[in-house]
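Hey L., structure's done. Input below.
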Amino acid sequence: MNKLLPFKHKKKIEAGCDEAGRGCLAGPVVGAAVILPKNFRHDLLNDSKKLSKKNREKLREVIEKKAISWGISFVDEKEIDKINILNASFTAMHRAIDKLNIKPELLLIDGNRFNPYDNIPAECIIKGDGKYLSIAAASILAKTYRDDFMRKIDDEFPMYNWKKNKGYPTKEHRKGILIHGASKYHRKTFKWLPENQLSLFE
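Output:
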């Protein structure tokens, strides 16, 4: 049985918010906001990182169908470089909230920091995607939409194997940067390679 909590304040319209891609070297950061019905339950729903690809995709269909409202937003690598990754993460969630067709009365944010949004109260919850259903739902939408995007641009730049690593700083990804240089999707303000580049070949 799923142990995640359905809501924090029963009488308020709550939107769970999360982002994906913050620690990547390439590609966008993706924000998501989800308002679930108060009676929503699903035994599989959990932090996206704890689920298989198959279950994430299955849950995405359920969330999009059953949610009262949901929104997704992409902040690309150029804007990330301009405003920094922390602000880009907040911006992605803000823009996802913008897309909700119902105004929430409370925002449940995964993490410990958030920039205020439109005078709506917000509560930051560390590891909230493993505590509240709405944040878990947002984590799944953010993750699956970002993964889809990274698989798409992998066709353009297969040398980095983004379809597998999704832009995260794996040894394989960094080796691709060392050999082929950076692509237009790489974040220029991020440190692409380790100090000891030979370690990539060990």
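The chain has two domains: 14-151, 158-201. The chain has a mean pLDDT of 95.

-- N.
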